[in-house]
Design a protein that fits this description.
This protein is α/β, with parallel strands linked by helices. The protein folds into two domains: 54 residues, Signal recognition particle alu RNA binding heterodimer, srp9/1, CATH 3.30.720.120; 75 residues, Roll (2,3-Dihydroxybiphenyl 1,2-Dioxygenase, domain 1), CATH 3.10.180.10. The protein is built from three helices and seven strands; from the N terminus they run E-H-E-E-E-E-H-E-E-H. A four-stranded mixed β-sheet has the order 1-4-3-2, covered by helices on one side. The radius of gyration is 15 Å and the shape is globular.
Length: 132
Amino acid sequence: MIANHIGVEAVNQIESAKAFASLLDRPMRLAGPDGDIALVPINDSFTLYFFQSDKPNHIHMAFHLEQEEFDALIERLKKAEIPFGTEPENPTNRRTDGHPFGGDGIYFADQDKNLWEFVTKTRNEWRDKGSR
């Protein structure tokens, strides 16, 4: 089984999708009968579907990145002046080290208060090494 997509609610789904796509250096396109769903493909099998909602439900989504992708994301976050950090409760300490899985990892919240997490090691790598 492979995940296909997840819905992300946003007050302005197009602006939210554009901002997220820009941070990940991914394309964004509109879909749906009225062109009101903003799609951000993450890879060949998984896409984020941004939907409009006046009162968005907040999600927490985590992604694994290779170190080079992670470093590029950090630079784009800094350039966009978006706070990030290693603590999900307060993701603003601008640190990237010390993630519970090992390696580098960060959290940041978007304008809709979704919490995005990016790590350089997967949970399986963490378990395989017998950490924690």
